[in-house]
């Protein structure tokens, strides 16, 4: 009698549990036969990430172009407006949820006093300052220039997704205008390429448990539990706000706007969510997100191929929420008076930066420095949150990916698709 195969999401969950246990009990210096265990984890974690990133460019291009080939001008305008409205609205709601909890719990105040001196600045502050350099609000405008790259090959090689998406949208639209044999050849090629990329995604997903174990164990071994104690309330504030957005607001969107089962959607998206948590990268998770949305949730490639690559680039609900909470926490810790005007400024800048700086290296840190500059705080203040930033990055990336998937399902339903989540 054949044994029943364990579902992929259960394999990843088991790997995640083992990773947490291993990270807590195994020391960084542990080695076997002279080989550092940490170096082995770094090797397999990097290998898994590289395999996912290898798929991104051909998958995004094939998916968008294939989806565009079947869209009319009216359908594209309708789909685009719904997608952008969804992304702007959910990001704003996420920021407001974060603002509510950071005002309620006030993690930057300890015993009625600003917590700056109690917490202390991280020793890595100088490293962050060197990373973000002199970037500011003007860098948001650079995003518009990235949409039209002078060299699409260079843009793809450098991971400039906005340029790649913009080119693919235009290319796909004109492929749909081709008639005769040349049109059929182009359409068959891109549909074939998409099918190949999805099969390659399925193959790499089989190794996801190993990649998840390596990535998460490494983070826990390096961070340790004791590092979180001084910032426990800030950590809890962010997690609580993220949980409310992901477990209450977004399921409400699925239930009452898309009219689908949130529980079924969670189950369908579990492999993508766990991969997003492990990799801390919406872009690296994109192949698995698309696979889950199309094959497990039943959304058409026409909708998924348009909404998901765009969402992985500009829809950052978890990041926007985190930026708001982090900026408010730092302001509280420095004793800054936070009137309504200041808080509105934080909300507005967090919304713009969550969209605008997505393509900039160290995007979250850059966004937070822009917010700090807007409310008059020093750049060194980022040092307050560095210790817990890595783990919170894992959590907010999972929220980003889940919001993208909810967008795909919601817009598919608004377009009249049935999906598999009813």
Description:
With 422 residues, the protein is mainly alpha-helical. The protein has one domain (8-414): Sodium:dicarboxylate symporter (Proton glutamate symport protein). Helices cover 75% and strands 2% of the residues. The two termini are 34 Å apart.
Strand arrangement, major sheet: 1-2
Secondary structure tally: strands: 4
The major β-sheet equals:
2 strands, antiparallel
CATH hierarchy class name: Mainly Alpha
Architecture in CATH?
Orthogonal Bundle
Beta-strand percent range: under 5%
The rounded distance between the terminal residues' Cα atoms is 34 Å
Total number of helical segments? 18
In one word, what is the shape?
globular
Structural class of the secondary elements? mainly alpha
CATH superfamily: Sodium:dicarboxylate symporter
Would you tell me the overall average pLDDT? Answer: 81
Low-confidence blocks of residues: 121-125, 131-139
Query: What letter string, H or E per element, gives the SSE order?
Result: HEEHHEEHHHHHHHHHHHHHHH
> Over the alpha carbons, how many angstroms does the gyration radius reach?
22 Å
Q: Kindly report the CATH topology.
A: Proton glutamate symport protein
